[in-house]
């Protein structure tokens, strides 16, 4: 089932387009990585998907999904690192996105505990968020984002600033989340990781006249757009994937 459909979308700010005539669709269970040069409009598109920046032209449509049901993990640089709150309080704050009040019931707390278990951080629920390492904080914020959704999660450069071990752990968690049925949409500069882990790649080229690409990871590796940005040969695990979605 298609969850998000972008049709001939021109997106930008104050009437000035950054992305022009972009069309693609994201189906339930997809793992989509959004890649491209700096300034190409990746963050602009992400804000559009979240409903924070409507298209100047065209449309973004949701099927069986409300934009308020999308979990969001912003860039680490945009997150306050010294929250004067416990881990449990930070994770519970993700439940507010689906509510019209600020009080948490038993179901909310069970939801928070379930997602802390999912990111292997339940033992830290009473710890101060500000005292955790960068990798641990990012896990907590991932659990927080998951509290807002059962369907789709948007991640903006989720491994920025993390060491190699924490980066590998975060990618593993994201893959596990996708395997549990949650659609993943991730902005990343790590193209080599993207073709190994994602089911689909959306490459946005800088400039409104640039060539964009949307298709499977396998198709991206063998495309003219992808070949310019990949630094290694096609990973065999990508080549042996079974893909059936056509490029839009």
From TrEMBL:
Coiled-coil regions listed: none
ATP-binding is among the record's keywords: yes
Descriptive protein name: ABC transporter ATP-binding protein
Positions of the ABC transporter domain: 4-231
Classification of source organism: Bacteria, Bacillati, Bacillota, Clostridia, Eubacteriales
Annotated PANTHER family: METAL TRANSPORT SYSTEM ATP-BINDING PROTEIN TM_0124-RELATED
Pfam families in UniProt: ABC_tran (PF00005)
Keywords attached to this entry: ATP-binding, Nucleotide-binding, Transport
InterPro entries reported in the protein's UniProt record: AAA+_ATPase, ABC_transporter-like_ATP-bd, ABC_transporter-like_CS, Metal_Ion_Import_ABC, P-loop_NTPase
KW Transport (keyword) present: yes
Family of the protein in this entry: Belongs to the ABC transporter superfamily.
Molecular functions (GO terms): ATP binding; ATP hydrolysis activity
């Amino acid at each position: 089932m298609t969850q998000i459909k972008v049709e001939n979308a021109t997106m930008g700010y104050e009437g000035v387009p950054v992305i022009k005539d972009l069309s693609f669709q994201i189906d339930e269970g997809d793992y989509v990585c959004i890649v491209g040069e700096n300034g190409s409009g990746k963050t602009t598109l992400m804000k559009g998907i979240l409903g924070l920046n409507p298209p100047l032209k065209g449309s973004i449509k949701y099927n069986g999904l409300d934009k308020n049901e999308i979990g969001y993990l912003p860039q680490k640089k945009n997150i306050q690192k010294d929250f004067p709150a416990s881990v449990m309080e930070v994770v519970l704050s993700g439940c507010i996105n689906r509510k019209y009040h600020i009080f948490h019931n038993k179901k909310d707390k069970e939801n928070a505990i379930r997602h802390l278990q999912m990111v292997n951080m339940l033992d830290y629920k009473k710890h101060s968020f500000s005292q955790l390492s960068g990798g641990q904080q990012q896990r907590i914020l991932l659990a927080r984002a998951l509290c807002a959704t059962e369907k789709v999660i948007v991640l903006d450069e989720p491994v920025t600033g993390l060491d190699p071990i924490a980066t590998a752990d975060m990618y593993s968690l994201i893959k596990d989340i996708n395997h549990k049925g949650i659609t993943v949409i991730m902005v990343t500069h790590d193209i080599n990781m993207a073709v190994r882990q994602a089911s689909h790649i959306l490459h946005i080229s800088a400039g409104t006249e640039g060539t964009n690409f949307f298709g499977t990871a396998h198709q991206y590796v063998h495309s003219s757009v992808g070949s310019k940005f990949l630094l290694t040969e096609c990973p065999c695990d990508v080549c042996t994937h079974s893909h059936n979605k056509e490029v839009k």
